Amino acid sequence: MGKEGLMAAKELKRLQSNPVRLERFIKSNVSRLLKSDLLAVLAEFQRQDQVFLCMKLQCILQLYDVGRKEIWYRPDMFFFRDMLMMLARNNKVDEANQVWRDLRSEEVLFDQHTFGDIIRAFLDNGLASKAMEIYEEMRQSPDPPISLAFRVILKGLIPFPELREQVKDDFLELFPDMIVYDPAEDLFEDQEREKDGKDDSGWSDPAL
């Protein structure tokens, strides 16, 4: 990231509590950033999980909109992948839905590897419903299915045995000569106890 990009990132974070000044700064300064600096600022805020800046105060989202107006802008699946995985880490389903609408309007297509990674990210953060929505998109994709993506998803579905059985059936239908190794039943029981503990206490020890 160049000097101008660093200065812009610092100022955007400083102005996050002042929407009017934030909007003014984006229009007057951010819109003039070089392509490389603009993308570097986006990547840095994604890395920092700055969802508040990204979606609520429209900081990164406005940067994204600025980028879309530039003649060099071309959407790619890696940008959308990183956005979705960041939102999954922060349990932001509504924002993920908005990003998904954007990528569909831009006619961006994920390959099967990327689908698997995104679905796994939502599963790992307990967002099974959204993960399965994306899984249905994956099943309808023109990209040929691959076994590795399914195995990544199946592993993420261990805490959700009923959903796992559905995906397992799809996997065996597509790849009848392959084997799925199921976890031991007591592992499912441990997962259920852990989920029940979270529901009862409202929190869980991240070290567990």
TrEMBL record:
Listed Basic and acidic residues bias regions: 190-201
Record carries keyword Transmembrane: no
Highest taxon in the source lineage: Eukaryota
Entry keywords, A to Z: Repeat
Keyword Repeat included in the entry's annotation: yes
Region Disordered, residue ranges: 186-208
PPR repeat feature ranges: 111-145
Name of this chain's protein: Pentatricopeptide repeat-containing protein
